[in-house]
Design brief:
The complex is a heterodimer of chains A (113) and B (112).
Chain A lengths: L3 E3 L3 E5 L4 E7 L6 E7 L6 E7 L4 E3 L3 E6 L4 E6 L8 E7 L9 E2 L3 E6 L1
Chain B lengths: L3 E4 L2 E4 L5 E7 L5 E8 L3 E10 L2 E4 L7 E2 L9 E3 L8 E8 L7 E2 L3 E5 L1
Parallel strand pairs in B: 2-11
Antiparallel strand pairs in B: 1-3, 3-8, 4-5, 4-9, 5-6, 7-8, 9-10, 9-11
The chains are: A mainly beta (113), B mainly beta (112).
Chain lengths: 113, 112
Amino acid sequence: GESVGLHLPTLSVQEGDNSIINCAYSNSASDYFIWYKQESGKGPQFIIDIRSNMDKRQGQRVTVLLNKTVKHLSLQIAATQPGDSAVYFCAEDGSSNTGKLIFGQGTTLQVKP
Amino acid sequence: EAQVTQNPRYLITVTGKKLTVTCSQNMNHEYMSWYRQDPGLGLRQIYYSMNVEVTDKGDVPEGYKVSRKEKRNFPLILESPSPNQTSLYFCASSADSRGAQYFGPGTRLLVL
């Protein structure tokens, strides 16, 4: 079945460095992808999204890259700050048109001061 | 402030005692959904609603009911809770089924 996975359960970076969080998906028909950030005790917070007709999208300090050839998604965070420490999830829409999002297991980002 | 709210945030109950978790959004979104989050299983969809009076099952609907009588509200009902429904529940909404979903703060439920 379809699944969305993240390559590393934990990523530790130094404050000020750039972070790259990776995600592999298996449903080649998915055409919409979202990155969420979840802080302890809170709900997932929308960060950035991308549709399959694009391969790159930039936001404030974040960039999402989509490589449909190898079914890979990444989130880049520039100048990582302590407030970026959280669990990051990628999600795909699975092309079901039901709005159901298929979530990966998440990567914990730890920012060292 | 645009937001999704859930109540209660924390709930301890006993097996078989009916409960309702409320969800409300103030963004005039058509699409609403309920997810549960469990360690090792991630976020899984319970039920969703494309619009008022339109609801459908997600991946794990057993033991749950929902209703969508008004656009802004989407309550989750557990008619006879069981311990395997102990979980963290999230309500989410989006403008339509093809857009980004915005999540509420979560409801942590413990069924004894």
